Amino acid sequence: MLADRPPFEDLYREFLGRIYAYVRAQVGASADAEDITAQVFMNAYQAYGRFEARNTTPAAWLFRIARNATLDHFRAQGRRDRLRRTIEHQPVAEEDPAGQAEERIRYRALLTQLARLSERQRDAISLRHSGLSFDEVGRLMDCSEDAAKMLYHRGLKALKDAVARQGV
Amino acid sequence: MSEPEEDLELQALQRQLDDAFETTRPRRGFEDELWVRMQASRPATNRLRDALAGLIQGIREVPAVPAAAVAAALVVALGVGLLANSGLGRHAGGASTAGGIPSQLRGGDQAAGGFGVLPSPVFDQGSKLSQVPAQNSPNGAEYAGPAQVVWAGQSSGAVADAPVYRYQEPSTNVADQFASSLGAVLRERPQGFLGAYSASDYTLKVRGTVQSPAVGPTYFIVASAAMPAIDATGASQADLASIFLAQHSLVPDWSYTVSVGVAPGEPRHRLLPHRLAGRGDPSGAGLAQRDDDDASAHDPAHQGRARVPPGAGGGTQLL
To answer: pLDDT tens digit string along B274-305?
Structure first.
């Protein structure tokens, strides 16, 4: 029964924005972020019957699904890009017009710099600023809490340097 | 750069990141769109499995129900009790959490403080005489119209307590949220209703309290012609009604029974849940299987067959 866990709609309303922001910080375009976010909650909705509240927090559970969905997106995108370049003999596309328009959005430039960090540093920063504890970040990234802290702080310094170089 | 300066810069960067993640949100409307998609995407196999699990045991092997009979439009009328208790869908599928009920309406006790002191029950002293027919039947034939009946006597019974059902009148916003929780999208606001909504294979109308005759908030679900026929070997009319409710995550989360009655010339079914002991709200829930169209569901005479007035408590019956 669902007695020991909140209604899924409560989770949905609470975490949709945070999951979207996390995904948005990973991928380049808002359309991709919407698609991935939708996939995350579709998967979560179907799997909620198997969610064990005593084993993990709803936040960690949802962010794990989001992280996996984002990784799947990158894998699929990599395959698509390689295939397209092979067929069309064209270079990697520049930022799409929609992405350029979003540069006007506040903090967009900061998130762009964040997206250019290494995958694990970006992940650590994104998860941490999505509201997860270092312990949860470490569990999601299959490392210790201390290692998660180190990843985060190194990523933060790298981001600061990148921001300084770009004048963001 | 000195270490304190670098620390200050890192702290400023952390604040910016906090702000960036706080302010990065999907476009307006995405949240509701996705929720509707999720409601509509529940696997049909899951819904059917859960529905069948709730069927009465021991269904014997008999020929399948004729598709024409099963394809008849289904009309569901449920009282505000369902709205207030957000019990929909909890029994239909492990992943189903079709809540969507505004928190201020969850639970009868939550709003109890806003209703004041209840009056002591008294007999109604007013005259309730019916209209005498203007003309008698010709030739002394049997008369079947209204008649005046006067009861003369004195009641010795003392009324110490009487059931009182109380609820918050739902607003259009509440109706919209409720419809959204069922996966239905607002279509229009016809007169007399809080809203009319469309889902994938049924339409939903939500109505507030009707003063005369007194009827509590009700919603009606009418299956569209696109709804596939239910093929359940050996299932009774009541079973079919249960399947419909389960398939659409509309099963109340309180105990209920299904009884079937047949009106002369027009088979109808009404679902009555058990009285909700100790819960101060009307929980009328009804489901009527009809063989007519959507429009007839709005005929007051028909609606009266598929609803439970506030005073009727939580009984449910399949007409």
So the answer is: 333 333 333 333 333 333 333 333 333 333 33
Q: How many CB atoms are located within 10 Å of the residue B69 CB? A: 14
Residue B92 tokens, joined: 């239909």
User: Is the pLDDT assigned to residue A32 strictly greater than 80?
Assistant: yes
Total count of domains within chain A: 1
Sign of CA dihedral A129, A134, A136, A140: positive
Report pLDDT for A146: 95
Do A20 and B98 lie within an 8 Å CB cutoff? no
Q: How far apart are CA B304 and CA B60, in angstroms?
A: 34
What distance in Å separates the CA atoms of residue B17 and residue B1, rounded to the nearest whole number? 22
Residue A108 placed within a domain? yes
- Asked if residue A133 is part of any domain, the answer here is yes
A3 in a domain, yes or no? no
Cβ contact, residue pair B100, A9, below 8 Å: yes
- Asked if B27 and A2 come within 8 Å (Cβ–Cβ), the reply is no
DSSP assignment, residue A103?
Answer: G
Question: Given a cut of 80, is residue A17 above it in pLDDT?
Answer: yes
What is the distance in angstroms between the Cα of A30 and the nearest Cα belonging to chain B? Answer: 8
* B8 interfacial to chain A (CB closer than 8 Å): no
